[in-house]
């Protein structure tokens, strides 16, 4: 659905907008299920759980770990500005709001030991100016 975009310097309907790109998380396994949808599916920015094996040097998690990430659709536009005779770009990205630390146990094959590896996960996600 095409919606009108209203900006103080110009008011113009986006007649020929490009489709949203596929999400960088498309095709990544999500809690055991394959994620095949991209941003064009209409889902707004939100926290998602992605299963992945964590690797650091020769250490890795014993099994895939549920990691919280941000993914989804955010507004963007390119609107002609007659004052400067070019287009003004307005883009927001789906990003984290706040981070929390979390420890993941990794097994190191070179010396057969376990180490605690610290990662940061978003506490929430929202569309933010980039």
Automatic annotation (TrEMBL):
Subcellular localization(s) per the UniProt record: Secreted
Protein keywords: Disulfide bond, Secreted, Signal
A GO CC term attached to the entry: extracellular space
UniProt KW Methyltransferase keyword: no
SMART domains per record: CT
Residue ranges that the Swiss-Prot or TrEMBL entry lists as coiled coil: none
InterPro entries in alphabetical order: Cys_knot_C, Cystine-knot_cytokine, DAN_dom, Mucin_vWF_Thrombospondin_sf
Pfam families assigned to the protein according to its UniProt record, in alphabetical order: DAN
Domain of life according to the entry: Eukaryota
Protein name: OTOG protein
Organism: Polypterus senegalus
GN (gene name): Otog_0
């Amino acid at each position: 659905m095409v919606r009108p975009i209203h900006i103080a310097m110009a008011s113009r309907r986006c007649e020929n907008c490009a489709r949203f790109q596929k999400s960088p998380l498309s095709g990544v396994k999500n809690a055991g299920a394959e994620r095949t949808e991209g941003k064009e599916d209409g889902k707004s920015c939100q926290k998602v759980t992605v299963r992945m094996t964590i690797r650091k040097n020769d250490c890795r998690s014993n099994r895939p770990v549920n990691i919280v990430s941000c993914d989804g659709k955010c507004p963007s536009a390119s609107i002609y500005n007659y004052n400067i005779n070019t287009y003004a770009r307005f883009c927001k990205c789906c990003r984290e709001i706040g981070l929390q630390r979390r420890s993941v146990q990794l097994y190191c094959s070179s010396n057969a030991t376990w180490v605690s590896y610290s990662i940061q996960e978003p506490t929430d996600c929202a569309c933010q100016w980039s």
